[in-house]
Every structure is written in C-alpha cells, then in structure tokens.
Amino acid sequence: MVRTMEPWVQLKQAGLEPSGLGPLPKALRVPPPEGNPGQALMSSGAELGGARELILWIWEELGNLRRVDVQLLGQLCDLGLEMGTFREELVTILEEEEEEEEQEEKSCVEENKGPEEKQDEERSRSSYPAQRLPDFEMTI
C-alpha cells in the first residue's frame, strides 16, 4: 500500500523513526484483501442464519479499523516530520543565540566590564517579564 508506506519511508529517511518500533505491521504494508466474505458464504451454499450477518458486520468493522489505522499512521508520520523540522529550527536558533552571547561577552571584555556585571544587567532587565518574550515552554 503505497499511501501508507510513503510517510513511513520519509520518516525513516529523515532519521526520525521511533526507536524500538520495528517495521510496520503486515496489515499496513499490504493492500487490504479483495472481495467480501459474504460472497464465499453464499457460494458455499451453507445455511448459516444469523452467523452470516455477524461475519459481514465483523468484516466491515475490520475494514473500518484498518482505514483508521492507515489514517492515524499517516498523521503520526506527518507529525514526526514536523517535529524534526521544528527540532532543526530550534537548533539553529540556539546556535544563533550562543553566537550572540559569545559576541556580547567579547564586547564586554573589550569595554573592561566583566561577564558578571553583564549578567547582573541582564538579570535586572529580565525582572520585567512584560518586556521579554515568554519562554518556549510557556507558549506550548
């Protein structure tokens, strides 16, 4: 089933496959079975009474569950890919912030200010929470 496998393959290629999960179950790797169990029951000529309806209902419900499984797998794979993108963006932001901090420390040393004095200034500025952006955890 190409639609099911494509997001999974993309997730694996991006290195975001969940650890310990293993390969997809066979039910999600192969196309659903063709036909209807009711056809086989009718052609056998067996008189099953209420069992036939029960088997047809079970078959239909299994098909519905399979469709939901495929849909959920696709959504989870898409979410995993999005998380990977966010992770890359976060790493980039953190690297930029680290570079900015290093540049600030260098400029502090050049101005004969110690890093401790600079940190004190930053703490006094950060005591006004309305003036700075909320932490990442707070926005979630």
From TrEMBL:
Top-rank lineage group of the source organism: Eukaryota
A Pfam family that the UniProt record links to this protein: DUF4530
Stretch list, region Disordered: 95-140
InterPro entries: DUF4530
Record field: compositional bias (Acidic residues): 95-104
Signal sequence coordinates: none
Basic and acidic residues bias locations: 105-125
The protein's name in its UniProt record: Glutamate rich 4
